[in-house]
Amino acid sequence: MSRPSTVLLTGGAGYIGSHTAVVLLEAGHRVVVVDDLSNSSEESLRRVRRLADGDLSFHRVDLRDVEALDAVVTGAGIDSVIHFAGLKAVGESVDQPVRYWDVNVGGTIALLEVLERHGIRKLVFSSSATVYGEPERVPIDESAAVGATNPYGRTKQAIEMLLGDVAGSSPEWHVVLLRYFNPVGAHPSGDIGEDPNGIPNNLMPFVMQVAVGRRDELTIFGDDYPTPDGTCIRDYIHVMDLAAGHLAAIERIDSLPGCRAVNLGTGSGSSVLQVVAAASEAVGRPLPHRIGPRRAGDVPASFADPALAAELLGWRAERTLPEMCADAWRWQSQNPEGYPAG
C-alpha cells in the first residue's frame, strides 16, 4: 500500500463488516461505515474502535436512500468500497423474495448510482459460494458453473451480473467479487463476533448457542450422505482470514481492472460431526446433538479451490478449525446474549 486510503463499508456494522473494519484500521486505512442496523448493532463499531486505533466514522443510512447515501459520500474522500450490505437468510428469502430483491439488488443499484456521481470506480463485493448452487465437482474453482438454487443466492448472482455489466461500461472500473464459503469464528479478543437475530441459520452460531445454554440441542440434518461420516462437508473459514482477504483485495485492486470473481475458502472441508467435535473440545464438554432427517437443498460436499486468491491477492487462509471454534466460544461465552440491546 503506497498511501492510506478511505474505504466505504456498506453493512459495516455486521459480522464480517466489523471484523474487516478492524483489519483495515490496523493497516492504516480510514473507514466510513454505512449501515441501517436492521440486522446489526452499533455496539460492534464501538468495540471496533476499542480494538483498533484509527479513523472510523459511522452513518445510519438505508442504502436504498440515494440522497442520504450521497450526503455521506460527498466530501468524504472515498477511494474504494466494500459492499457487505444485504439480507442473507436462505429460508427467509424463500418466504420473502420481493424484500430480498428490493434490499439486495435495489440497494446495490442505489449504491452504484452514487458511486457514478462521484467517480468512484473501485468496488469489492461480498458475494457467496451459494451462487454455485449444486456444484458439479469439488473443490470448486471460479470456472465452475453458477446456478443459485434459492432467492438469496439468486440476488447475489444477479448483483454479480450487474457489476460485470457496469465494469464493462468503462475501463476505469475495478471490481472484485469475493465468493465466501462458510465464515465462522470471531476476533480473538472475544469482543466482536457473530450475533444473528432469532434462530441462527448457520451451524456454528447454533452450536455455540447450545454451548452457552440458549438452545437445548443441535439437530444434525442427515447422517446418510456419501461422506466419510455421513454428514455434510463444508469449507469453514475463520472470519479474521476472511477479513484479511478483503484487505488484500482493497490493497491490490488497482492492479485488477474489469470484474473478476475470487473464492475465499480454505480449500478443504469439515463435516458437521467434525465441527461438533471441535466445538465440544473448545467448550470442554460434549455438546448435545441428535440426528434428524435431511434438509431439502443440502448438497453432500462443498469446498473451495482457493488457488486464484493466492495468485491474484497473495492471500491464503491460515487458521484451523480448532482455532475457529475456540474464538467462537470465547465470543459466545463472554457475550452469551450477543451484543447488548440499545
How does this model look, in words?
This protein has a domain at 6-185 and 236-265 and 305-314: Rossmann fold (3-Layer(aba) Sandwich). Helix content is 39%, strand content 18%. It is built from eleven helices and 14 strands. The strands form four sheets. The chain has a seven-stranded parallel beta sheet, with helices on both faces. The protein has a three-stranded mixed beta sheet with strand order 12-9-14. The protein is globular and about 55 Å long. 50% of the residues are buried. The mean pLDDT is 96.
Q: Which tags fit this structure?
A:
single chain; 342 residues; alpha/beta; Rossmann fold; 7-stranded parallel β-sheet; 3-stranded mixed β-sheet; 11 helices; 14 strands
Number of helical regions:
11
Please state the structural category: alpha/beta
Residues in helix, %: 25-40%
- Beta percentage is 15-25%
Main pleated-sheet profile = 7 strands, parallel
CATH homologous superfamily title of the domain at 6-185 and 236-265 and 305-314: NAD(P)-binding Rossmann-like Domain
CATH topology label of the domain at 6-185 and 236-265 and 305-314:
Rossmann fold
Q: How far is it from the N-terminal to the C-terminal residue, by CA?
A: 37 Å
Q: Give the ordered list of helices and strands.
A: EHEHEHEHHEHEEHEEEHEEHEEHH
Over all CA atoms, what is the radius of gyration? 19 Å
Number of strands: 14
Chain-wise SSE layout:
Elements: E1 6-10, H1 15-26, E2 30-35, H2 42-51, E3 56-60, H3 66-73, E4 80-83, H4 90-95, H5 97-118, E5 122-128, H6 151-169, E6 174-180, E7 182-184, H7 203-211, E8 218-221, E9 233-234, E10 236-238, H8 239-252, E11 258-264, E12 270-271, H9 272-283, E13 289-292, E14 301-302, H10 307-313, H11 321-334
Parallel strand pairs: 1-2, 1-4, 2-3, 4-5, 5-6, 6-11, 7-10, 8-13, 9-14
Antiparallel strand pairs: 9-12
